[in-house]
Design brief:
By secondary structure, the protein is an alpha+beta fold. The chain has two helices and five strands; from the N terminus they run αββαβββ. β3 and β4 form a beta hairpin. The protein is globular. The termini are close together.
Length: 86
């Protein structure tokens, strides 16, 4: 995996998850397809395969650049700014 300039600026250790699932999907009665966690603040949201794309919406609202898969057994990260797996 390649590094991006946003990785060194992330908090260490990673923030605690704010939820165990996508709270916006719960409110809307929607089912999240895959979960992601924001590595800046711990926000948990659904992926772009979900109807409402809450993780991308979180990036668009906050500018927090890097998220990680919040699915069991997965640890890949995505930088929205650089558009690459890091």
């Amino acid at each position: 995996m390649r590094e991006c300039p946003h990785i060194p600026a992330l908090p260490r250790p990673e923030p605690e998850p704010q939820a165990t699932t996508c709270p916006e999907c719960l409110t809307l009665g929607s089912h999240p397809v895959q979960l992601r966690i924001c590595l800046e603040c711990g926000y948990v949201g659904c992926c772009d395969s979900s109807t409402y794309r809450h993780s991308t919406g979180h990036f668009e609202k906050t500018g927090h650049p890097v998220m990680r898969s919040f699915e069991p057994g997965e640890d890949w990260r995505w930088c929205y700014v650089d558009q690459l797996i890091v």
